[in-house]
Amino acid sequence: MLHTHIFANFTSVISRILFTPYFILFIDAAKAEMEKYRRSIGRWRILALILLLCVLGLLVGIIAMSFIKDSQLEEIKTPTCSGKEDINLEPPTDPSVFHDLTAVEVKGLMRYLFSQRSLNLVDPAKARVNNSYVYLAEVYVPAKTKVLAYLDNNGAKPDREAIVTIFRGDKRPPVVEEYLVGPLPNPNQLKEVPGRRKNIPFNLRPINGPELGSQIKFLEEYIHTTLYDLVWESFGGKFRDCGKKCLTMQFPAPFSPAVSGVPDGRKTWFTMYRLIEFFDLHPLDFSVLVDFNHDTQSTVVESVWYNGQTFSTFEELAAGYADGSVRKMKVVFPEENDNTFSKLTRRGPAFQEGFKREPLQFEPDGKRYSVHHNRVEYLGWKFYYRMSPVSGPQVYDVQFRNERIVYEISLQEIVVLYSGLKPGAKFPDYFDSCTLLGIQDKGLVPGVDCPLHATFMDTSFVLESSKEPVTFKNSFCLFEQNTGYPLRRHQAYAAGYGGFYEGMPNAVLTLRTVFSVVNYDYVIDFFFYQNGVIEVRSMSTGYIFPNFHTPEEDPYGARIHDELHGNLHTHLFNFKVDMDIKGTSNRFATWDITSTTTPNDYSAKQNARYHMTKFTREVKATERDGAYKFNFETPKYLLFYNEQEKNAFGNPKAYRLVNKGMVKQLFSQGEGNEPAASWSRYQVAVTKYKESERRSSSGYAYSDSSDPVVQFQSFIDDDESIQDEDLVAWVTMGVHHIPHTEDLPVTHSAGMDLNFFLLPYNYFTEDPAISSKSSVRIELKDKSKPQDGIRIIKYGPEEEKQCVAKKNPYFEMLKNTPGLVVEDGSGSTAI
Question: I want to staple 818 with a disulfide (CB 3.0 to 4.6 A). Which of 574, 706, 727, 824 is the partner?
């Protein structure tokens, strides 16, 4: 077949050459010459000329044949990378205990809920704040004891249930109700959620779509009619009929009852922005405090901030502006173009004159991991993954070499605490799970957010917008990557030292998700190394949340553009790590490193001392002992282990927790919104596992700081024993961020990464990755005769494989389905 194809190509090329106008003219000219000289030169000259023409044609044919052959051989030499792969992302008919709700389960759940007349539910599409409607539903992972009995001891599979949040605006007083509904897919009962309040105050509910939309519409129309002249003269824009000079009220900052002093208040600060990409970097010196009354469905203006002045109402400000008693301001509405400082378009001198592509990775033999629904296996690792709509990514039942290391690792909360003079910058203490972290993760872009060769997974949610599951494409990506540095290596160059080299490339499996919470983007990674190490990493990128610059803001940040002030803020991340080292009977201990001195008997000085360090072991007895605040004066190793499982040398087979993302949270304990983030007081806190202590935060933490729905500090204050118990580590990472000009237009991820590790510590008899076939050893054939040469030991194929990575059709698909990345006007961002 190949020869036939080549011959066809050859014939085509020859015909194209022979029948070009130039070649025909050449032949005609040759004929004329032959006629001219035929009689005088003789027949042998004609034959020579014909022979020359034949040679020329043959040469052209050989060249054409060479090009075609090279092209065909190139295709043969560089095939598409392939290998046996095992990827099944279809919805399961029998979902695992860790799987998110399936479409079949959601259908049964909604049918049952709407059949319960006592709930008085209305269709989500028609819901208003004073109605009763389903705000959220997600799978309720069964009690751990039931799950382990099922997984480890052939127990019955626990029933699948959903935890459902219902906004009961129809009740007096209105409340938020949470229920467990099951068994799925055909539920027949509602029951209370263990460890949660039966009724949650209505003013603590997360800001949701119907409420937020009505408040913004109310404010924009009210300002447009009451303060038209002020807004146009001061800011050069409008809210209605604005053309290219549009304004908006955005970035709601809840004014929590603990800060406002109003226990049942529902107050929020809004700030004015110019609608220029990206509006977040175009704030104006105008903010409004509103209070929403759920009984009257009305929004009341309580305070107005304009140019450093405070007013009780829009009318008061309008009157003062008209009579000249108000200090006025005037800023120019900038023209938006590709060079606008806040716009993410390429500009400036490039680093290369032409264009050369960035390096790419490929999988020469196909994927080395498998995925069955939501279960992943990779070179000794096994785990399940899921996405909580409230708190984000979770991995469960993490095993290495068929031994469970961790029962659960899950993101609990992301908090950003701001500082500033103006109310729009002073009061935002954002608890991002209140925005539903899980649904902020969609549309990961191959080749940028994740490698082209990654496997992309979707997530589905039950949200207030629909009775059907809402599916977001590309919420997770899973890929193996070569980090570019060795997992281990050693070179003993001299024959006397051994004359060998041994090393192993560090290829790791990565599960990634990325949240875009309005302005900030957070990259969350779970890494699985071949030596039994787990790493969890968070990185910040995206737009900062700045303020309109005035000199009075200087103590709270820095001026970074003409009218822009980058406000100081603190990012905090909290993770739950349910350790199961050799079972559920674990201890938490610290290896405490201290300085010491000993006599130096070998010194010429009399009574000389030698200074060094030593360590002591301390087993933590109770939860208060296990609440760890880092102190450079007392460095420690943090270890988790089963006292009954020791190695041949008497050391417990442990895992060590290393937190490389520690930060000291500087807010006053017990004041303002700090109680809702009491977990941030500790870099690591270790508690006894309880079903009632599932999360360190909640979707109500925006507003509940005076009496948190989840009071994490109580996990510690009951001071239970943590010796030989099922232990949970709550890990906090963070970073203080004072913005700078290089944060424009967006903050880069370099240097903004935070991570913690779980490292085997006397758990294995040796490095478990020593068994990997990816290692390379180079050694002298004979150490006593280095001149005899070397031996190269590789455990894979000897030849280097070259192949072309499979083409990713993402960008072609994106042209037909733009809703993968941006709202496409269909009324939904779901695909």
Answer: 824
Positions marked active-site: 432, 520
For residue 596, the number of C-alpha atoms closer than 13 Å in the C-beta half-sphere is 9
Q: What residue type is 522 in one-letter code?
A: Y
698 to 58, 196, 200, 414, 436: CA distances (angstroms): 80, 10, 12, 11, 10
How many Cβ atoms from other residues are within 10 Å of residue 6's Cβ? 15
CATH number for the domain harbouring residue 729: 2.70.98.20
* Residue 436 to residue 750: CA distance in whole angstroms: 26
Q: What is the reported pLDDT for 646?
A: 97
Q: What is the pLDDT of residue 49?
A: 66
Asked if 456 and 479 touch (Cβ cutoff 8 Å), the reply is no
Q: How many domains does the chain have?
A: 4
DSSP string, 519-574: TEEEEEEEEE-TTS-EEEEEEEEE----EE--GGGGGGEEEEETTEEEE-EEEEEE
Q: Give residues with Cβ within 8 angstroms of 499, minimum separation 6.
A: 492, 493, 779, 780, 783, 786
Distance of CA 662 to CAs 33, 609, 684, Å? Answer: 91, 35, 9
Strand 369-372 to 86-88 pairing: parallel
Neighbours of 291 (CB within 10 A): 18
Q: Which two tokens stand for residue 567?
A: 């406000």
Residue 142 phi/psi, 5-degree rounding, is -60, 165
Task: Give the model's pLDDT for residue 6.
Answer: 42
DSSP state of 49: H
Nearest by Cα to 534 from 585, 578, 503, 593: 578
Q: What local confidence, expressed as pLDDT, does residue 24 receive?
A: 45
441 and 578 belong to one structural domain: yes
The pLDDT score that the predictor gives to residue 828 is 42
- For the chain, give the number of residues: 831
Beta bridge partners of 639: 589, 656
What is the pLDDT, as a whole number, of residue 69? 53
Q: Which two tokens stand for residue 742?
A: 């290089």
Domain of 672, in residue numbers: 371-543+569-737+747-772
Q: Are 221 and 239 in contact (CB under 8 A)?
A: yes
And the tokens for 543? 């737009």
* CA-closest candidate to residue 111, choices 48, 181, 45, 55: 181
Q: Is 224 helix (H, G, I), strand (E, B) or coil?
A: helix
CB-CB contact of 556 with 568 (8 Å): yes
In a domain, 403, yes or no: yes
**Quick one: 488 exposed, middle or buried, by C-beta within 10 A (0-12, 13-18, 19+)?**
middle
Residue 631 lies in a domain: yes
Whether 285 and 231 map to the same domain: the answer is yes
Structure tokens at 114: 């709407």
Tokens of residue 163, six digits: 């935890």
Where the chain has pLDDT below 70, the residues are 1-49, 54-55, 57, 60-77, 825-831
pLDDT the model gives residue 236: 97
Q: Is residue 357 one of the residues assigned to a domain?
A: no
Asked, for residue 449, whether it belongs to a domain, the answer is yes
